Amino acid sequence: MPARIENTPAPMDEAPLTLDHLLRLRASQIPDTPVLAYPHNKKDYTQYTAPQLNALAYRAARHYKKSITQRTSSETPEKVVALLGISNFDYVISLLALAKLGMTALLLSTRISDEAYRHLLNKAGCLHIIVQPAFEKTMERVRSGHDSAVNVVRMASRGVYEPEADPKEKGLTLEDMRFDTELDMEVEKSRSALIIHSSGSTGLPKPISQTHLGIINGAFGMSRHLATTFSALPIFHIYGIMVLFGAIYTGKVTSFISAEQPITGKNMIAGLKATRPGMLHSVPYTLKMIAEMGGGIEAMKMCKFVGCGGSACPDELGDKLTAAGITLVSYYGSSEGGALLNSSRPESDKEWSYLKAIPHALPYIRWDKNNEGMYELAILPGWPSKVLTNNPDGSYSTRDLWQRHPTDPLKWKYVGRLDDTIVLSNGENATPVALEGSVRDNPYVDQVVCVGVQQPTLGLLVIPSERAIGMSRAAIIQKIWPSVEAGNSRMPAYAQISAEMIGFLPIGTPYPTTDKGTVIRPAFYRTFQVQIESMYARYEESNASGGASLSEEELKAYVRNTITKALKLEDATTLTDDTDFFSLGLDSLESMQIQGSIRRELNTRKQIGQNVVFEKPTVRKLARHLYRLRTGEAEKEDDGQSQIEIMKGLVEKYSHFEQHVPANSDKQGDYIIVTGATGSLGAHLVSQLATKPSTLKVYCLVRAKDQPSAHERTIQSLKLRRTYEDLSAASLSKIIALPSDLSDPHLGLSEDVYAELLDSINIVIHCAWQVNFNMDVSSFESAHIKGSHNLMTLCLKSRRSGPASFNFCSSISSVASTPGAVTIPETQPKYEGAMPMGYAQSKLVTEKLCNAAAGRTTLSARVLRIGQISGDTRFGVWNATEAIPLTVRSTKTLGALPAPVNDEVMSWVPVDVAAGTIIDISCLPPIAQKEAPVFHVSHPKLLSWNNDFLPALRAAGLEFESVKPTEWVRRLKAVAQDADVNPEIKLLEFFEGKYAADEVRNAPYFETVKACAASGVLSGVEDVKGDVVGRYLEFWRQGW
Prior knowledge:
Layout: H1 19-29, E1 34-38, E2 46-49, H2 50-64, E3 80-84, H3 89-100, E4 104-108, H4 114-124, E5 128-131, H5 136-144, E6 151-154, H6 158-161, H7 185-188, E7 192-197, E8 207-211, H8 212-221, E9 229-231, H9 238-250, E10 254-256, H10 265-275, E11 279-282, H11 284-292, H12 296-301, E12 305-308, H13 315-323, E13 328-334, E14 338-342, E15 354-357, E16 365-369, E17 375-379, E18 396-404, E19 412-417, E20 422-423, E21 429-430, H14 433-440, E22 445-451, E23 459-464, H15 473-488, E24 502-504, H16 521-527, H17 529-542, H18 552-567, H19 588-601, H20 612-615, H21 619-631, H22 643-653, E25 670-675, H23 680-691, E26 695-702, H24 707-720, H25 729-734, E27 735-739, H26 751-760, E28 763-766, H27 781-796, E29 805-811, E30 823-824, H28 838-856, E31 861-866, E32 868-870, H29 883-889, H30 891-894, E33 896-898, E34 905-906, E35 908-910, H31 911-922, E36 934-937, E37 943-944, H32 945-955, E38 961-963, H33 965-974, H34 988-994, E39 1005-1006, H35 1009-1014, H36 1016-1019, H37 1026-1038
Parallel strand pairs: 1-10, 3-4, 3-5, 4-7, 5-6, 9-10, 9-11, 11-12, 12-13, 23-24, 25-26, 25-28, 26-27, 28-29, 29-31, 30-39, 31-36, 32-35, 33-38
Antiparallel strand pairs: 1-2, 7-8, 13-14, 14-15, 15-19, 16-17, 17-18, 18-19, 20-21, 22-23, 34-37
Domain Carrier: 553-630
Keywords: Phosphopantetheine, Phosphoprotein
InterPro entries: ACP-like_sf, Adenylate-forming_Reductase, AMP-binding_CS, AMP-dep_synth/lig_dom, ANL_N_sf, FAR_NAD-bd, NAD(P)-bd_dom_sf, PKS_PP-bd
């Protein structure tokens, strides 16, 4: 069992202000304590005390003063001197020497291009560079292409700074060994001590300054684990810097592996055995090498702690080390914010991958939730180590994504970078870090990178390790497949890897990495573009039709078996010939994989459509379609049924309702059910309802596994839309989130909860609906059409004096294709009026159910057709991934916006206005009518794109050129097709369709006479112009 470690460093008599001040304080306070060790002969470690390091740095500084003019006043600008070399003892002493001279040290990686060196030298204004002999030729090339002369100085070696003590040094005090006596330390503490740089993964590397106080703050953050330390980290990265100065700060010796030898598992084990440290600091790649080497686990178990940082440790590797009895501590920090979180915890806690903020950083951390339920870490103003700002409030958004611990709100698990996100061609987002980590930990894998930007599915490009020499592709896949499956288990279904989407590069293939061994993803994609494209081409070719010719009955069996395997159904009887695949949980990735299996295994003669599984979502429909493709038999839609007949059949199936029977409930006031509370409109509904004095309870029916999860999703939705802060404790107490399943007759609720709702509910607002424009109308049956019927049944079973009112949030898409209509009235729909997609058709079906319920029972059912919703009027929160925000964002890369020749007119209703309108109408006294009334929740006044919206954007400070739509699309197609850089490229196909010509087709006008008469909110709504557009732009720009 690891021994107890001290909790406090050796005491400080005063707070250090600069790095040299820190070194001199420690030299005075702990003169006989070793703080650093280095193996000059690659084997035996020489230890150095703080006074010794101070004297060596003094001698090196005296040497450098001969070539570099010292800075002598805090009123003069910072003076930057670069260091280039491996992280050996000479490098450490030179770094400390520059600190003595009051210089700012630019720490250059040894693995970047000549162009990158020139760029960094220019950006930092650096005219002096201290270079180790091995890199002098590199600097000759850099100097030849540099705009100004750079003074190259050879790095001082031990012969310069570590001879026998100079007689002149006898009697010198620590104060005498200062060169910065004319500098004001109160000023210098906030000046740049060091400049490090980014990896340059998305272009040229970026210099990032680190202040004296910021580094000292980070060194203090490292002091949680006080132990003798062994480090294999380069000093020109922030983690290595913190370990170095953390050793001086804590007074615990840190031994650095020899930089003159390669970092291998064997050398690491030798270093651990030679130094027998209490703690090891390393990056995941090095830990993997040690763990795979014989005796490596045992060597690490000698340490009380093993620290891992620099990049995320794969779950498999961390779990393996933890299971072996190693106390693994993950560290998170950044060049922009220093050390922030770690997984320090009691010995009994094995959750190594969940990190907590270090105590003094906690007040300076903010967690910003995104639409995928993950959180981006932001660093707030006031944190000493924060050196950059990228938000109007002075905070810094790190672009690092995290998941909250399911039960402990202070614990967080790193997920990946926003830069790591891969956007598939269907618009789905995937963060592959966990998947890659699982596969990378396999001993037959040297490196693996997930690919698939703007492709239909993810793929893996694998570089096998030397263990795979002589093995076939199939044999390697067999060896790594358990790791692939483990990674798949951590991914959403649409982002899982199939065996045919694994490609291989030759063993030993070099690939672009950072100094920490992390793959530079964009550079990897560029380097292996041909191989990636070939992998997808082979996949498409393998999907070409040419397999078995089956009868219709055989096709049914084939489809049933394929679906059963794809969904891993334990009970095959749940899949009948007419069961909708999507009601069983089929997703877009699985449907695509099924489509690929059909192409490979069946002879269909004709190419099957991209959405065939969406369009034919039952065994019967898909088998019949495949049979007719092969035989050439004329396609008859759904066995003679048109889409209208299908809709009519669904209406007939669900139009049977029981009559309301009053019971003895004594409830008064409004008890309201809201579905869709986790969406934008639903969040505004819930918050506005909760503030109404007449509202006693708001029950949110949420798709979630349990009540805590339902509550968490609801509250986070309110926070995301900025409605949470306005709710008092009394208002919040009205909100009750319940996990539910609307397809269940009792809505997935327990008998007690369902009975409670029957006893109290008097209003239901049904806002939840799956937004998927590929699915057939029949795929909306179970969760949505049947779910609506179940909610109406609940209303009719109410034990209050009358049934609860049912207020259905429909969509203008249910009538937007009404033939020849220029103006669409607030009346019952016609079947042919729905847009030709399952989403719109399912909305129309449910409108018809409302009408049937109103006509056959005493239910007060209302249809509220929702138009185009825009951001709220107060904060301008409008989902940046929607079409309008993405169009506006294109000004960042294109400098232009489309301006249709005939102008485009829109009817945008702000989301808070839409919610207020729905509430006004839903809270009207229930009236039994023979027909469900229809209300259009749409803006009464039209907005002109050319004459209103574009001028409002300009007035808000956005600069752009107005161009014809076809020209705008041309420019969009010409820019980089990287969705991280240009997110608007995700909707290229949509934009190509909308702007196929320079004139646009305007939608019909939706009357709002009845809605305005029923709602004071809608009748009084202001135009969406001026200040409102300015707030939209301000919100979008925060994400640019």
